[in-house]
Give the backbone structure.
Amino acid sequence: MRICLIGPTYPYRGGIAHYTTLLARHLRESGEHDVLLISFSRQYPGWLYRGRTDRDPSRRPVQTEAEYLLNPLNPLTWWRTLRRIEQWRPDVVVLPWWVPFWAPVWAVLGRGVRRLPGAPRLLFICHNVLPHEKGTLGQWLLPAVVRHTLAPGDGFIVHAQSSAERLEAILPEARFRVTPHPSYAALGRDREKALPVPVPEDRPLLLFAGFVRPYKGLDVLLEALPSVLARRSVHLLAAGEFWEDVEGYREQTAALGIADAVTLLDAYLPDEQLAACMAAADVVVLPYRSATQSGVVQLAFGYQRPVITSDVDGLREAVAHEQTGLLVPPEDPAALAAAINRFFDEDLGDAMRANIQAQAGRFSWERLSAALLDLARPA
């Protein structure tokens, strides 16, 4: 099958760039498909992107061949991209969807693809149907934007049942498949031996990783930590670029009297450093307020690291309670502290690591590819 995949890839950074890259690589390495990966000559304008840069600093990045044609702010490049797709004559075109910024370009490309000779199938991979943070569009306008953008799609991949329900509410006739977010284990093959910052080696290490945003609940974890420290010495490494004021978190650790037990690393970690953090952690703690899926969970599982996380949306589908991790109510520091204490009191790590390894097939790229190919066939 000839598959045109559009989305971010190296040198762009972040989970969706990793996802696009790994999917393209898997499809190519299967030997069964021709793949054209079209990426961006420019991704976000500086005034919109909250991070310091959208470029990946990894020394050994995960990458694959791509053509960098598309600028979401330049409609001329949308037309050139359509011309390239028409010239290449794919059987299926796959677009990613995650935030409303992409609505104009995907709406134009989607409708343009539907009019191409040969009528290629149009599929969307919905990393989020609706964004975590609603912003200025408001709850009433967001569904309309999503509906207009995704309406040309012949099929949709979502990674959680909750996302499927949101999609059905917006597009009742949508044809979709729910399949788990695949593993990011490949990001850790060339990990650093040393952590990016020193942490105590004589006590268990808790890891909170990824972009730090309000919905991810780092403040909840900090509130839970005194109750954990009352039982045992642990250290928390919170590693990732803070998309809000890091000083607020430093003030919180000081007010709680836990500053000596917390390292706040405000930096986007290259792949090899993030993998080193995973390898060193005893458990990954992700007290999200909401989530449809998490690449951090999949990287943790790639290192057979149990995950303690919130019982919300897609996370409860990814993390099997008492098998590969523990689920707790969101925004409940007492319950989170109790779960962390239980993890160590009952010495759950070894059994959970074995379960993670046994369940690795749930999170394979083969499973995602099979779902895509199923949707690529006419209903």
In short: The first strand starts at residue 2 and ends at 6. The chain has a mean pLDDT of 91. The chain has 13 helices and 13 strands.
